[in-house]
What we know:
CATH architecture of the largest domain in chain A: 3-Layer(aba) Sandwich
Distance between the termini of chain B: 22 Å
Radius of gyration of chain B: 19 Å
Distance between the termini of chain A: 66 Å
Shape of chain B: globular
CATH superfamily of the largest domain in chain A: P-loop containing nucleotide triphosphate hydrolases
Number of domains of chain A: 2
Strand order of the largest sheet of chain A: 5-6-7-3-8-9
Largest sheet of chain A: 6 strands, mixed
Radius of gyration of chain A: 26 Å
Structural class of chain A: alpha/beta
CATH class of the largest domain in chain A: Alpha Beta
Structural class of chain B: mainly alpha
Number of strands of chain A: 20
Number of domains of chain B: 1
Largest interface: A-B, 33 and 24 residues
Shape of chain A: globular
Oligomer: heterodimer
Helix content of chain B: over 70%
Number of helices of chain A: 9
Amino acid sequence: MTRVSVQGLGKAYKIYRHPWHRLREWIGGPSAHADHWALRDVSFEVRDGEAVGVIGLNGAGKSTLLKILAGTTVPTAGRAAVAGRVGALLELGIGMHPEFSGWQNATLACQLMGFDGAVIRRCLPQIEAFAELGAHMDQPVRTYSTGMQVRLAFSAATAVRPEVLIVDEALAVGDIYFQHKSISRIRAYLEQGTTLLFVTHDLAALKALCTRAVLLDNGRVARDGPSSMVFDYYNALIARKEQTAQIAQTADAGGYTSTRSGSKEAEILSVDLCDAAGVSRRVFQAGAAVTLRYRLRINRPMSTPTVGLIIRDRVGSDVFGTNTFHLGLVPQPCAAGDELIASFDLPLNLGPGHYSVSAAVHPGRVHLEGNLDWWDRALLFEVVPNHTPFCIGVAALPVRASVTKSEPAVP
Amino acid sequence: MLAGVWRYRSFVLGMVRREFQARYLHSVLGSAWAVLNPLALIVIYTVVFGRVLHPRVPGGDDRLAYAIFLCAGVIAWTLFTEVVSRCVTVFIEHANLLKKASFPRATLPAIVLLSAALNFGIVFGLLLIFLALTGRFPGWSVLAFVPLVLVQQSIALGLGVTLGIVNVFFRDVAHVVTIVLQLWFWLTPIVYPEDILAEPIRRLLGLNPLTQLVRAYQQIVLSGTWPDWSAYLLPSLCAAAALGIGIVTFRRLAGEMVDCL
């Protein structure tokens, strides 16, 4: 059975150069607005019990699509039909009133879903139990942290299993414990037949839940199919975007100096991360063999400088770092104007998450002895889980487990 | 539209209740203020105009007549302006809900209407008790309030919803409404009896649909007589027109509204 049917869907936001133009249009004047099409010609169908991830770069139209499906926004063209009760978490939440307490907001959320008194009375204790907010439930929601608000919102929106669950980015805010708890609730609902539409930049969560993905690019469906196939295409899209971004950054040298320092006697021209086939990418599976490649230019005669790398996690903690000195490379004389290529081949034995690469060139063994060029966050990449068993943390260590009965001690 | 509101009645009633509670949330006396506030109004009017000043009004020659005259007008006017001015901002106020939850949009004006009706009910009940205690209970003619208030609130609702939706696109509307409502107050015979006005101005006031309504309220509480129904053609027509415009505006623009919030 088809749960969600989207045909030729389009959404145009009207852009007026001046508010008066809208008024002039209302009273019968000529059309004075420009249309910004956030979505255009989007068509797809979702069957009962299917879990679909919607991915795309910022501004691709993901949120607009979910808003239309959730019924808060009216489409400009085409049609979107959703059969059954919809539970929606849009833009980090459900409508909440900051002055009301957690209990009152939970009640409000239930009432907004059209539940009556008896159902609400049954739901409230369950919502509290799942959100684990304890005494905070009596406090006004304005005193909550974002994470607590999301916990309450998710608990309320999923208190009764919806036929269609729409989640936009909401889970990313909660702590890991709650993320896992909500993902297992979503998974349980999926097994009971709920249809899921899921927008996230967290490809790991998406991969864990969705078998199918729809990739939006500039408001149109760029790919629709099995998750793995769509992800590959998405990776290429990200790589392409980063290339243009790097050009833009070079052009905007003034604003970019804050993250770069050094005498520039030797200079990093570019940093790239490639897979085993030599294709530039920014998303890799855990354990993938990659090559980190710098292009350098020497601006005065010197012996080959030391080239270093640091991989940092999302919060900026060092995960791994080394340099060509420690790796035993022997310096050679270089002339001014020489261009060098430095490559590091390594397996990305990292846990799922976002990482950055900082690149450095310095004359001695460590950068404290002099700094030729230091480029923080020269490149960002993401590691998604591979087929190996689930793990957490920043390291992906090869592991084997066994549990056996111990021999009874000989008396 | 009405079916949607009915389906979401638990939301509407819940919001009315929460709004009522929220108003007295951090006060020691709590919802007692809902009664104390209007009680103070009646007492002040009675003391000031019954004991200190003695303005005279037609249809009542005793010391309390003006205070009662004033109460009837002010209470009705408060109900009217509360609905108009809150409808004007209700969509912006609830932008968070409108953007994140799908529910019948018509429930928001319904909440305003019911919330105002609740406040009116309390103060009007107090007025009736006051009238009964001073031996002036108007008798059955008090029932005439029902159709009159319905007509008045239809005007308020139609006007409020129209302006409220336009206000989402042009936020100037709310400011203009505040000024116009003040002017409108003085163009309605609430604090002064009509017969102190010169004839041309009186005729002008006759075009104000609220004039006939307020006149009827004052007549009921002061003399206990039934109003003259034929005079209510204009207010009723205005009510029908306001509701019509409100519904058309709502149908045409309610969807686009969310894009501007």
